[in-house]
Structures are given as C-alpha cells and as structure tokens.
Amino acid sequence: MAEPVSMELARAQLRVDPDAAQDLLIEQAIVAAREWVERYTGHLLVRREVAEVFGSLSGTVDLHAWPNVEVTRVDYLAADGNVTLDKSNYVVSPMQRPAQLGLVAPSGWGQFGRAAAGAATSSIVTVTMQAGYAEDEVPGRLIRAMRLLITDDFENRGDGDYSAKVIAAAESICRSDRRVVV
Q1: How many CB atoms neighbour CB 149 within 10 A?
Q2: Do 22 and 85 share a structural domain?
Q3: What is the rounded distance in angstroms from the CA atom of residue 131 to the CA atom of residue 118?
Q4: How many domains does the chain have?
Q5: What is the distance of C-alpha 74 from the center of its chain?
Q6: Which domain does 95 fall in, by range?
Q7: Which of 58, 63, 61, 110 is nearest to 88 (CA)?
Q8: Residue 66 within a domain
Q9: What's the confidence (pLDDT) of residue 109?
Q10: From the centroid of its chain, how far is CA 72?
Q11: What is the chain's pLDDT, residue by residue, as a tens digit (182 residues)?
C-alpha cells in the first residue's frame, strides 16, 4: 500500500539525503502522520478493504469508512449459517457523508426477499467494502497536514508526541474534512 506522502517527498520536506537508518525513521513518521489524519478526519487516505458490523439492516445504516468506493459484500448471520445478500437486495448512497446502505427487496421477491428480510432481523450484519482514496486523489490539504506532522515527528524524535503547536496547525488544516457526529 502506497502512502500518500512518498519517501521522496518526506525527504525533501525534511531536507535529508537517502540513508537506510534515516529512511526507517521517516517511514515510521509517514505512517504515524497518516494514522493521525485518518483518526482526526475519519477519511481513509489509503484505499483498502474495510468491514463494518451492524446489529441489523432494519432501516438504513451509516457506513463510516470514507470515502466509500464500493460495497463488495453484505453478509448476515442466519440460524443455519452465514448468508450473503445479492447486490440487487441493497442500495448504497456513496456520495453523501456518511454513505448509507439500505435494503430494497420487498418481501414478495421470493428467495431474494426472504434473504433481505433475514438481514433486516439478523443480530449481526457485516458490510465489506473498498474504501479510501486512490493514490493520486488524497486532498492536498490532508497531505499538507501529514507533512507538518512528519516534520515534527522527525525533528523531535524521542519526545513521543507531536508538539501542541503542530497539533493545532494540523487540526486547523483538517477541520473542514472532519465529520462531526451529533
């Protein structure tokens, strides 16, 4: 998985030459910065498979992985084992945040309707999806926040935390991308 900030960009930001020992520290700083931005904003900066578990699909459910690229499976636990819903049994609204998933099959649709009804009453529903930005789609402001965090991490090795000034700057940059849960 390619990080949004490449080793070359990080080295340029830090004004350091390639060095195996330095590169390991820089790589760790890159990963830590991405994780911080992902936690703060709720955006997945690297595309990957994500599974979210819900109690049922009795209405619509909010998919928290963002950006949501594609729901690949919806499974629910039935009395006789795991059941995978056909894609015609659910609809995804991926353009809003959070993306939402809901059932579309009425009970009169034979086996597909029964499968959707099972998901509506099951106590465990797992939605598997591909989510996150493609390599060249990460917003520049989020990369900028990562660069600030990488620099602070690298320059203050051993301190264990980012400085308050850098945290405030990164939060300011990322604030418009943060999902506020009410």
Answers
A1: 25
A2: no
A3: 26
A4: 2
A5: 18
A6: 48-131
A7: 110
A8: yes
A9: 44
A10: 15
A11: 799 999 999 999 999 999 988 999 999 999 999 999 999 999 999 999 999 999 877 778 899 999 978 999 999 888 788 888 888 888 998 888 889 998 885 544 445 455 556 665 667 889 999 999 998 899 999 999 999 999 999 998 867 789 999 999 999 999 999 876 65
Structural domain ending residue among the three candidates 112, 131, 150: 131
In CATH, what number is assigned to the domain containing residue 22? 1.10.3230
For residue 139, being part of any structural domain is answered with: yes
Residues in the chain: 182
pLDDT tens string 105-119 = 554 444 545 555 666
Domain assignment present for 146: yes
| DSSP string covering the chain | ---SS-HHHHHHHHT----HHHHHHHHHHHHHHHHHHHHHH-B-SS-EEEEEEES--SS-EEE-SBSEEEEEEEEEEETTEEEEPPGGGEEEETTSSSEEEEE---TTSHHHHHHHHHHHH-S-EEEEEEES--TT-S-HHHHHHHHHHHHHHHHTTTS-S--HHHHHHHHHHHGGGPPPP-
Backbone angles phi and psi of 2, in degrees to 5:
-85, 130
pLDDT of residue 117: 62
Amino acid letter for position 31: V
